[in-house]
Design brief:
Blueprint lengths: L5 E4 L5 E6 L5 E8 L13 H8 L10 H9 L4 E6 L4 E8 L3 H14 L4 H19 L2 H14 L12 H6 L2 H11 L5 E7 L5 H9 L21 E6 L4 E9 L8 H12 L5 H9 L3 E10 L4 E10 L3 H17 L4 H18 L3 H15 L5 H10 L2 H11 L6 E6 L4 H5 L9
Parallel strand pairs: 2-6, 7-11
Antiparallel strand pairs: 1-2, 3-5, 3-6, 4-5, 8-10, 8-11, 9-10
Helix pairs in contact: 3-8, 9-12, 9-15, 10-11, 12-14
Amino acid sequence: MANAFEKTTLPNGLRVVTADMPSAKSVACFVMLAAGSRYETRETNGIAHFAEHMFFKGTENRPTARQIAGEIDSIGGEFNAFTGKEYTGYYVKCAAEHRDTALDVLVDMLRHSKFDPEEIEREKGVIVEEMNMYYDTPRDYVDGVYDELLYGDQPLGWDIIGTKETVRAATRATFLDYLDRWYRGPRMVAGLAGAVGEDAVERLAGLLGDVPNGSAGAPAPVEWEQETPRVKVHTKTSDQAHLRIGVHSYPIGHPDRYALMLLATALGGGMSSRLFTEVRERRGLAYYIYGYNQSYTDAGTLFAQGGVDINRIDDAVATIVSEFGRIARDELDPDELEKARNFAKGRLVLSLEDPKGMISFALRDEVLEGRLREPDEVLAALDRVTLEDVHRVAQDVIRDERLNLALIGPFDDEERFERLLALEVPA
């Protein structure tokens, strides 16, 4: 089958990835960078996310946020951005006939934003309120509590949004220094998917071909070691406890990435997974519960997350830990592996039917790994995973000494929960 993606590298190191989808009437225009909160210092924590906000506040050509938004509204498009720990992305999706307008606005935002000091000061209040919303939403905030437990005082352990102190301390120079260091050609990938058009690469080369070259290096490698189970409780009055239980796993490019993916799917992917069946359906302990593997370039974690009854918190923790132990102790049934395989393949295929999903898939790979995986390559790799592969990976990553519990709720006794973190897995 023909490749879904085509890649061109411009002389300044910037890469252009296109995915032509003949039946599409729309086009998704993306710019993604290998620059996220992991690339910050303690003093600049939150600047990647803050910059994402400021790119929408006005450029030399479009001086106000209203003008930028109005131009995208006038073509019926949608635009947004997102900041992760290892990448940042910006996109416009619109009808194919308006592609050039979308690209012009997108690149103008990224290259000619004013970072007006008055706008920066005004936006600090917005971000502090976003921060307050994050802290007041335990389902979201448990992510930060868990990452701090896993990684401690290093960038992967910090909140993407930063702290109120670092946000309030940011100046125009803070933004310009950060962008000058990381927003360079070799760290940047532009992508188009859908009704791409014949001159897409030439158009992007004209807009981005003079982005400065040069590499700023890489963030410091993550460091972690764990010899005993660990608990971190964030005490908060609430009617529901939110928890995340997990273990360190593999980085994104690990040879067993697909076996790990199917392990996570069998554990907590979908409404017939082990966690959903046991925690919600059989015991009624939670409304939401799921399992997932999250990988970075040099770290990873397999975890379960749920919102559970505060009066049955011990039962919930013990039940989730038991499911981790059971899946590490015993091989999956053949039917269970096939269900997990088809679930993972099906979700991938569904995500790639949309131009935005298609180019997001490609750009994450290109930004984080410096290579493109074709969809057929991923599907074939999932087909090759055996029962023995999943069992071997489960036994490797799910161990007593690697268990971690992050918990938000009306509790303050960490030792109470440490006693529950014991797997019944042979050494």
